[in-house]
Amino acid sequence: MITIGQLARYVGVSIKTVRVYHDKGLLPEPARDASGYRRYGANDAIDLIKIRTLAEAGVPLARIRELKSAPDEELQRALREIDDELTARIRGLRATQGRLRRLAAGRLASLPAEVGTHLERLARWGFTPRWVDLQRDLWILVFATHPDQAITLFRDQSEILADPALRRLFLDYDRAHDLDADDPRVDDLARRIAQATRERYGPDAPPELDAASEIPILIQGTVNASSPAWRRIDTLIRAQLNV
């Protein structure tokens, strides 16, 4: 028989943790002996190891209490589910670790090869370095937060830029960055972009991210914040398209 301090030390938890488990009804609290100490046996140590293992796996204490009294079949099923959840968490942690290592190496995130090729093409087409850098950063954000939808959005934009007339619009938009917001060219460009959007998509809306996502607002806010002219163009386009 051992004391609570010995029990805690052998199992690798604190005395406070053992007492919490007593209070939560997870570990029966033994009666005191003639010396006034509570003494624990091997079964207590085994039970405490089980509780600690489940708690470290992220199982809530209330669920652990239920599992302690569950039939063996239910317990085994629950343990398999917990194992699956741990596997998913480990996969997520490994992905996070990969992003952390890329960040340490100066690479915020990986982009598909076709996006890299597209960014190189932008420079050859005459887009400014500012525009290319902005596009790279925004695609990193989209692919990092919405990988399933990002490729559809990217390919739609890639198709647009493959059309010389539409590419001209984007080039004009790029160069409008330094215009005064009240420059007449801003209004004309917004009108042309709105018209091209209607011609390309008709009554259908262009493909976009999940409506519940805040990323589109963040992206447009980032673009608008970099240029008063771009901000006015966005406002005019939305008004003309009734967005």
TrEMBL record:
PROSITE patterns registered for this protein in UniProt: HTH_MERR_2 (PS50937)
SMART domains linked: HTH_MERR
SUPFAM superfamilies: Putative DNA-binding domain
Highest taxon listed in the record's lineage: Bacteria
A molecular-function term among this protein's GO annotations: DNA binding
Entries under Gene3D superfamilies matching the protein: 1.10.1660.10
The keyword Repeat is annotated on this UniProt entry: no
UniProt keyword list: DNA-binding
Keyword DNA-binding: yes
Pfam families registered for this protein in UniProt: MerR (PF00376)
Domain HTH merR-type: 1-70
Record's protein name: MerR family transcriptional regulator
Organism: Actinomadura craniellae
